[in-house]
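Task: sequence design from structure.
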C-alpha cells in the first residue's frame, strides 16, 4: 500500500473506538487467541478496535516485536495487528460492524504477511486519484493536481499545480478547499519548497509571486526573531535587510 494512501486512509477512515473482550477464562495460547468485539446499537464503519490493555497483552503473550495477524470472522484475508505508540496497546481497524452484531476475531502468530493491494491510482478529470477498495466498492480518497489550473474569475498570477485536492471522507464529503475567495493562493494540502536543488541549480531561489510594481511583504530573519519589511519594486532577495522595530518570534 502506498504510504501516503495508507496514512490518509487511517486518518480519514477512523469511525470511533471500542475495546475487544477476551473470555474470562482465556490464557496464553501459542497457536491462536480468540477475542470478541461487543455489539453496538448502530452500524459503525472503520472502528479502531483496542484488543487488550498493556497488562492483558503481556498475559496473552502479545508483543510488538512479533508479527501477529487479526482474523475477522467472515473476512477473506487477515490483517496485521498494530501497536499504539502512545498507549502501547494492540489494535486494528475493523472495516464494518452491523447494528447489534458482535464479531469474533482470532489472533494468530505468523512469520510473514503479504498485504492485500487495495489502494490504486487512476487518472480522472485531469487529476491523479488515489482510490481504495472498501465494502466491495472502489472509493476515491484524494486527488493530486499535477497540471496547472485556473478556475474562472481567478487572476492568472494564482495559476497553480502540485497540490492535493480534493480530500474525501469515507462517506464522500470533501474536507479540503482550494482557491478560497479571500485566500486564492491556498490550495488543499501543499508544501512550500523554499530551498530546492536540481542538476546543480536552485530553481526556487529568489522566487516572488506578485504583480509588476506591486508592494510585497518580505521576510528577514535570524535565530529567535523574524522581521517583516514592506518593499516596492525591489527584488525578493536583497543584499541588506530592511529595519523593523517589532521583531516577531
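Answer:
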Amino acid at each position: 500500500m502506498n504510504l501516503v494512501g495508507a496514512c490518509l486512509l487511517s486518518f480519514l477512515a477512523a469511525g470511533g473506538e471500542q475495546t475487544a473482550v477476551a473470555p474470562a477464562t482465556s490464557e496464553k495460547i501459542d497457536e491462536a487467541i480468540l477475542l470478541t468485539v461487543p455489539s453496538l446499537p448502530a452500524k459503525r464503519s472503520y472502528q479502531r478496535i483496542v484488543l487488550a490493555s498493556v497488562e492483558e497483552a503481556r498475559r496473552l503473550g502479545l508483543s510488538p516485536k512479533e508479527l501477529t495477524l487479526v482474523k475477522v470472522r467472515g473476512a477473506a484475508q487477515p490483517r496485521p495487528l498494530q501497536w499504539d505508540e502512545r498507549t502501547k496497546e494492540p489494535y486494528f481497524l475493523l472495516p464494518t460492524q452491523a447494528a447489534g452484531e458482535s464479531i469474533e476475531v482470532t489472533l494468530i502468530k505468523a512469520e510473514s504477511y503479504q498485504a492485500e493491494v487495495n489502494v490504486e491510482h487512476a487518472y480522472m478529470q485531469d487529476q491523479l486519484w488515489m482510490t481504495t477498495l472498501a465494502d466491495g466498492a472502489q472509493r476515491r480518497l484524494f486527488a493530486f493536481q499535477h497540471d496547472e489550473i485556473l478556475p474562472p474569475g481567478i487572476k492568472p498570477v494564482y495559476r497553480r499545480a502540485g497540490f492535493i485536492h480534493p480530500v474525501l471522507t469515507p462517506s464522500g464529503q470533501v474536507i479540503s478547499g482550494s482557491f478560497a475567495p479571500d485566500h486564492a493562493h491556498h490550495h488543499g494540502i501543499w508544501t512550500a519548497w523554499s530551498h530546492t536543488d536540481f542538476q546543480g541549480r536552485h530553481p526556487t531561489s529568489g522566487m516572488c509571486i506578485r504583480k509588476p510594481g506591486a508592494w510585497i511583504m518580505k521576510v528577514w530573519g535570524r535565530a529567535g526573531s523574524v522581521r517583516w519589511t514592506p518593499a516596492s519594486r525591489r527584488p525578493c532577495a536583497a543584499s541588506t535587510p530592511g529595519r523593523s522595530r517589532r521583531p516577531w518570534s
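The longest strand covers residues 137-145.
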